[in-house]
Amino acid sequence: MKRLLAIVFTLCYCYLATAQVGTWRNYLAYHDVQQICKADNELFVLASNDLYQYNINDASITTYDKVNGLSDTRITHIAWNQKAKRLIAIYDNSNIDLIEPDGDIINISALYNKSITEDKTVTDISIDDVYAYLTTSFAIIKVNMLKAEISETYTKNHPEYPYDLKPYQDDYDKYIATVSTLNPNGPAYNRFYESKFIGDKLYTTGGYFLPAMPDNALPGTIQVFDGNDWTLYQEQINEITGYPYVDICCVDVDPHDPEHVFAGGRCGLYEFKNGQLITYYNKDNSPLMGANDRGTLLGNDYVLVLGILFDSKGSLWVLNSLAEGVSLLELTSDHQWISHHHTELEDEKGITIPGLSKMMFDSHGLLWFVNNFWNIPALFCYDTNQDVILKYDQIVNQDNTKYSPYHINCIAEDKEGNIWIGTDVGPFMIQENEIGQTTVTFYQVKVPRNDGTNYADYLFNNVDISSMAIDGANRKWFGTNGAGVFLISSDNMEQEENFTTENSNLLYNNISSISINQQSGEVFFLSDNGLCSYQSNAIAPSQEMTKDHISVYPNPVTPDYTGLVTITGLTYDADVKITTATGAIVAEGRSNGGMFNWDCRNKQGKRVASGVYMIITATSDGKKGTVGKIAVIN
């Protein structure tokens, strides 16, 4: 079992808590109990398709996920084999893990890897002797849980087909009362769609409206993580409003009151205080309009609010899709509604286009949003002071190549003031000097092949970019539909990371949202399989470097520590040198945003000798920073 622990010590001798760079965390739900298996003095509990273990004697809880050894995500069935002293866990993709009470895990991937046309989904498990019999539509799979192998496969025509298997005894009824009192820390649900960091809290929503599939609604969900605990906002709001509370896809927080929160979804706008609904808005009590779908005017079941955003004054900007004569609204801090409707936001029939979403204010105070819908994808830039809107629906790059994306999925602004958009045909950038112009170039970064030719390739050309975030070092995190996550250097020329489910603890290769805690560097990835995070090596830079801002951890570095020493509180692109007491440089480099990491090795790659080392910093323009010390003990 892996244990994540970092001891933190600052230059001013204060202790702080942080995760080691490069570590992963899963934030999984264990809310809806599905199965319980008693294993001597342990209970294995399958809940929300995730697994945890409860010790009856000491009441301790151990949660399982990809970080501490599971091979996959979304467990559908579990069963305990008393003779083999192992639990079998079946995933929805037919992967198999055998789990022992001490946490050891053995994977059996033969069924998962088997290439057949038949459905391999396991629908039931029976236990007999040291064997588990897995029921599928095409055969019974016999697993030897002691030898950790698939020993036989019985088809319906097999002469030894085991019709009368010993049924597995379910412990659910006996222990559900006990399990219901347990509370493994985590969110209530694994439903995650959009997220944003506001202050020191991660706000997440759980669904989105698909115009092509209106019946596939997702229950309204808002979950907030403060770094330690989760808060679930009020549910069953349909009992109050009389209309479905579904497809909550956007959320924002009042800049003047962190407990005052708004959310939008399929059936209008919702106002919360301390996680409880205080007001809801639909076509009956606000300028919001019901959807006009192909000439049919719908009611409060379809008041599409797919994008909201507060400005610094406390006004809430609201996008109302598929409405007639309504598109962009402002709800002032004194609860007055102002319409900012523009014909640029209508289709040829005068109806507001259907997928207005993903709102963002840039560093110039301009409001950006997209129409993320296949028939009329577009990007919009709105000047709230001048009431001028610019529509960009022709994607043409610097080489005059025209693209026709189906989806514009996301927007982000980098540290240089450039605006990035993610589409299903790749990322594009509007350079800072063109912002506000009627016509802009959708610049594609060219990455040299470095193969002896002068050729270059467009960055992620034709890769479906689903989400983006910019970290403290101006590096770009790209989430994709199908290819996992990419991290690109600040100059856009180098791929620093590519995380997938196959090479990392990423939960799913389809990423719906990326959010970064800029103070800690933890990067959160949302998907249909749940929420996970990666501890990166970049944080937001400080405005100045003083001993009150700079922190170093761990300090001292003990002999058993093999991770990176982390220095934080640096200014952007600061120069950092690690020297001996006599001034010899053993390591040097530039900060990632406000962070610098050292592996306790010298320039020759050897671990440095025991001693006290100096940390000397300077700003990117050469001005003197601060000096600190770090002790290394071997």
Explain how this protein is built:
The chain has 634 residues and is mainly β. The strands form 15 sheets. It has a 4-stranded antiparallel beta sheet, with no helix packed on it. It has a 4-stranded antiparallel beta sheet with strand order 2-3-4-5, with helices on one face. Strands 6-7-8-9 form a 4-stranded antiparallel beta sheet. Residues 1-17 have low confidence and may be disordered. It has 3 helices and 52 strands. Pfam families: PorZ_N_b_propeller, Reg_prop. Residues 43-158 form the PorZ N-terminal beta-propeller domain.
Sheet with most strands: 4 strands, antiparallel
Helix content: under 10%
Briefly note the structural class of the backbone. Answer: mainly beta
Query: What is the count of DSSP helices, taking H or I runs of 4+ residues?
Result: 3
This entry's quaternary arrangement is: single chain
Rg, rounded, reads: 27 Å
Q: How are the strands of the largest sheet arranged?
A: 1-45-44-43
3D shape = globular
Protein name: Por secretion system protein
Keywords: Signal
Pfam families: PorZ_N_b_propeller, Reg_prop
